[in-house]
Write a structure and sequence with these properties.
170 residues, alpha+beta, NADH Oxidase, four-stranded antiparallel beta sheet, Nitroreductase-like, NAD(P)H_nitroreductase
């Protein structure tokens, strides 16, 4: 296959794959770095490089799961709290081998939408690199990420746009 054919195949194969379908194996550190590195090649106006990615694995990931669950619990009225949803938040983060927080940094140099667009293109690069490496992934954007404090430091000019889940596929 020539380069154009390879690219077409990867673009067409890319899809969101959820943690329930991830294998229990570890993604190699080399591939994780490759995935994150691919994000940094996204186009960005005035070279503001607005993406801020933090990778969560092992202990830190377990803490993130607990914090997300606690936020869900504390922001729901008792009558809307669902035990299944609470368990599912923990399950997804624990089942993924790695989770990346997707944060946009607003530099003030370009309109905010341009920074969000650039971060989104970075995430697309990560999706494609996952696909090429047999890694399942998806972008999750629950409201509760706005309340993350312990796992993530979000500055005043930043916003968390969600979490990027990753796990090997069988
Ligand atoms: C900005 C953004 C936010 C998303 N947030 C969620 C989400 O919160 N929950 C979810 O299940 N999927 C989420 N997704 C994934 C989409 O649901 C998914 O891309 C869509 O269903 C199309 O499927 P595909 O990625 O396999 O083509 C998000 C995708 C994008 C681009």
């Amino acid at each position: 296959m020539n380069k154009a054919e390879v690219l077409k195949e990867i673009i067409e194969q890319r899809k969101s794959i959820f943690p329930k379908d991830y294998a229990e194996t570890e993604i190699s550190q080399e591939i994780i770095e490759e995935i994150l590195n691919s994000g940094t090649f996204a186009p960005n106006h005035k070279r503001t490089k607005p993406w801020r990615f933090k990778i969560f694995q092992s202990e830190e990931k377990a803490k993130l799961a607990l914090e997300m669950q606690e936020i869900y619990k504390s922001t729901q009225a008792p009558q809307t709290f669902l035990e299944k949803k609470y368990q599912d938040i923990g399950f997804k983060i624990n089942k993924a081998d790695a989770v990346v927080s997707i944060v946009v940094n607003f530099s003030g140099m370009v309109p905010e939408w341009e920074e969000i667009a650039a971060v989104s293109m970075a995430v697309q690069n990560m999706y494609l690199t996952c696909t090429a490496n047999g890694v399942g992934c998806y972008w999750s954007s629950p409201k509760i990420v706005d309340h993350l404090k312990e796992s993530l430091t979000i500055e005043e000019n930043q916003k968390c746009l969600g979490l990027f889940y990753m796990g090997n596929l069988d």
